[in-house]
Each structure stands twice: as C-alpha cells, then as structure tokens.
Amino acid sequence: MTEAKDLLQNILTEVEAADTEMFKPNGPINPKNETVLCSCDDPLIRKIWAVAQFYRREAEHSRVDSKISGTDLKYDAGFNRPDDMADLLRILFWVLLRECYQLWASGGIGIRKEWKVVKLKDDDEYNCDGSHDPQGSARAIEIRAGSLPAGLRKLLEGLE
Prior knowledge:
By secondary structure, the chain is α+β, with helices and mostly antiparallel strands. It has helices spanning about 5-15, 45-70, 80-100, 150-155; strands at about 35-40, 110, 115-120, 125-130.
C-alpha cells in the first residue's frame, strides 16, 4: 500500500514539472455573457490546470482505445486513473483559483484564453473551462460537499 502523503507528493512533483504552454485555456471570452474579473498569474495554479488537461486527454484516448479494441477496460487498473486524476486536479484548480483570488462570492466563473478569469452571467455553470464549446459555454464542474471524486476523498482521508 502506498502512503497518501507519498501520493500527494508525487502529484505535486508532476505538477511542478509541467509546462503550461502545452495546455492553456483557449476558450474565447464571450462579451455578451462574461465579464473579466482578473488574470490567473499564479504559476502553480496554471501548472495544475495543464496537468488536469493532460489527464483529461489521456482519459479520452483510453476511451477511444477501449471502443476501437472492443474491450471493456472500465475495470482495468489503469483505465479510470486518468479520469480521476483529471477530476482531482480540476477541483484543486478551481478551489485554489477561488481561494487565491478571493472569488468565492463571485458565483459562476470560467477560465479563458490568456488565463483570463471571467464571471459568468449564468450562475448555473459554477466553474467552467470553455473547452467543450467553441462559443465559450462549457460543462460545469461543481465543488459541493460530497461531490469529491473517490480518488481525492481517499487521498484526503490519509492526511487526517
């Protein structure tokens, strides 16, 4: 069994080594529905974003590989890890962004091209990255009690 602190340290090491130029937010600002609040200039928060996007891409590749091969990999040890890592890092990104830039009372926010943090007109999308729709709307990632992915809950339980 691996210690939770070791797992967290491995994640931090991976994040610190990340290149933010590989995966940057590229969604355009929609001036009709979004207002720029600030820019995310924190290098660690940017790196967390980049690694989350890397894992999201790896998860998509795994799903495509599974579909093409006709093999159900959802119970394979490595199949779910990229999805869980992407979820963990995206939640960490949004929490740190809100905490560091004092955005908890801002309602719905998004991250856009050139690391601009925007206020969303529609608060139904609590945190969004703009990457799923070229017009700038995106799937929301909500941070609410009990909504943490299993991997993140396991890591945090080990820190108690």
